Amino acid sequence: MPKRGGSRTMCTAMESAFSDLDSSSCDFSFPHTDDEDSRGSMHAASPASSLASSGNALDAGELQQKKKRRGRARSEAAVHVVKKNRRLKANDRERNRMHNLNDALDALRSVLPAFPDDTKLTKIETLRFAHNYIWALSETIRIADQRGNKARDSSAAVNCMAEVPSPGSDACSWASSASSPSYSSSNPGSPEAMDDYGFLQADVVYRYHSYPGIY
DNA sequence: TAGGCCATCTGGTCCT
DNA sequence: AGGACCAGATGGCCTA
């Protein structure tokens, strides 16, 4: 399986390089800065004040209008800042949410049977393989249960190994001793589990790869 | 260079 | 109102 691309954007890379900086410092979607806001309002204010101070005769109504406009500009700037902050917070939450999702996917990957040569499963592969794996486990359990029942009914599970050729496995005793198998508490994909249930694992992996479904 | 995968941003919608 | 969730858009990285 080819190694896949996909790495962090320049922005994120810079964020991690300067992790002490607020993420907002890497936000390019708001080129209109607070600084500009204040400057803008300053500029908006300056003509009126210069006019007033220069002694030009502005009637009271006009001044009132200018004050209103200035006030509106200020409140609009404030609303803009509030909106911007809200957006940045939402971006942050969304980022965390996606990180949690990725952590969960990593956890899922870690319990799926892995193949040494394989690179990391993609997200979609992880979900599909997990689906297949669950199906394979279910199938194996179902068949093992059937065998267990058969063995109990005949009260002679002695020939079990001949029925299930699996060198070095304890599948026979496992299948005949209980109607449902006991499972290793270890990680299903771990070497211990493979040792405990070599046959089971081989069977599961076989089914896992011969899944008849759409995937 | 095209295509696949990924991280992130964004606006909309739903829920508490 | 604020947070969670979702889907579309965008741009970067990597491989064939």
TrEMBL record:
GO terms for molecular function: DNA-binding transcription factor activity, RNA polymerase II-specific; E-box binding; protein dimerization activity. One of its GO terms (cellular component) is nucleus. SUPFAM superfamilies: HLH, helix-loop-helix DNA-binding domain. GO terms for biological process: axon development; forebrain development; positive regulation of transcription by RNA polymerase II; sensory organ development. It comes from the Eukaryota. Residues 19-30, 41-60 have a biased composition (Low complexity). Residues 85-137 form the BHLH domain. InterPro entries: bHLH_dom, bHLH_transcription_factors, HLH_DNA-bd_sf. Keywords: Developmental protein, Differentiation, DNA-binding, Neurogenesis, Nucleus, Transcription, Transcription regulation. Residues 19-76 are annotated as: Disordered. Efficient DNA binding requires dimerization with another bHLH protein. PANTHER family: BASIC HELIX-LOOP-HELIX PROTEIN NEUROGENIN-RELATED (PTHR19290), NEUROGENIN-2 (PTHR19290:SF171). This is BHLH domain-containing protein. The lineage of its organism: Eukaryota, Metazoa, Chordata, Craniata, Vertebrata.
